[in-house]
Fold these 3 entries.
Entry 1:
Amino acid sequence: MITQPAGFWIRLLANILDAIIISIPITIISYLLTSSWNENVYTNLINIAYALVIPVLWYGYTLGKKIAGIRIAKVNGEKVGFGTMALRVIVAALVYVITIGIGVIVSILMVIFRKDKRSLHDFIAGTFVTYEKPDQTSNPQTNYDI
């Protein structure tokens, strides 16, 4: 039940906002603590945890998506859970790495040209990105998938 799908530019804006508001400050704090700009495992873990946990707790929104007015939802309209977000973030990242970035290009083209605006990671996780507001009347404690 895909309604009001979000296109490429608004999704890109949301990702840029997340980078500016979350990822860059985490990287700067990491540098201040470690005195190194090299790849830091703690920075990566915090960014992954943010991408996995915040949408589950916040009805599919990250901070950038909330500002942009879009959110992640399951194709059936339900709230995303930890299992869904793990598929969307971790498994999809592995697919993108294994395909040496070709998967990223394919995903961009899918969001631009498909009517439902779903990318590879949306298909992997059974999700889509939408402008539709969540139904917050359901109990979030019982709505997690694993």
Note: The beta strands are 71-74, 127-130.
Entry 2:
Amino acid sequence: MQSANNQIVAKINKSKRGKIFFLKNFAFLGTGNAIRHSLSRLCQDGLLIRLSAGIYLYPKISELIGTVYPSIEDIAKAIAKSEKARLIPTGLYALNKLGLSTQVPMRVVFLTDGTPRNIKIGGKTSIIFKKTIPKYLSLKGKITTLVIFALKEIGKNQALPEELAKIKSVLANETTENIRHDALIAPEWIAETILKLTENE
């Protein structure tokens, strides 16, 4: 019978490069301490990269740039999937996703129905999961969700004409059904902004 370490290595090698692993992915192979010890050794050997406490990457390797790291969103989605939780991007991250800001935030906040926590990635970036009210988790449109939280970040009556023009252009790619549905959930001033920008669509 294979040792726990060999079974962990076999499981990793069967996976695609770029996969993110969690301690619980190996829970059936031994005690928590034994698994942590094995994963720590595999990080030292270069098979895995430790992204944060209990979160490991089986890295893609590019001939041009070397190790390819997943995006913050990919890491957050992997964490949410492991918890069977939902995520909503907010703040500066929503602005960046919509092209309203070129600033890549070092502190990325997601609303979730999962476990609230602050995860440090590589010592520089933080992924923060905040518990949210149920109504925001019923938002349907990916674009309208980003717009709602981008406008919240900008502030009431603070959006510049060019920002509103950009929001109008991205909302053209959202369905009318989603816009109408999500406007009912958004704060009143945001709903009015969205509906005004899409009234001729």
Note: The first helix runs from residue 4 to 13.
Entry 3:
Amino acid sequence: MDVEDLEIYQEAMRIGEEIWGQVSRWDFFAKDTVGKQLVRCTDSIAANISEGYGRYHYAENRKFCFYARGSLEETITFIKKSASRDLIPAELAQELETKLITLRKRLNAYIRTLGPAPRDQ
């Protein structure tokens, strides 16, 4: 099985492309400030899922999935900022946020399949 077979990876990639499509139409100032950060954190979701998957050890995979989850939360924040600054329509912001919340739930479920959390020593 390859990382491309993971549904959470596929969905993260689709959301990343959707965000890219929106940001690429913004004016220079918006792209240079909020846009770059939004694209980076969105792309980081799939990138961290991929990197963790490639580590071949459940603890490393979990760690990078936690990073992906952090990037997902950051993405939600920048989507809210983009909507409040009239860079994306409120309806689209809500749609993207809903997709990201669903992805977060699926990512959390995936993390649970990777084995137990390490015990505190």
Note: The mean pLDDT is 94.
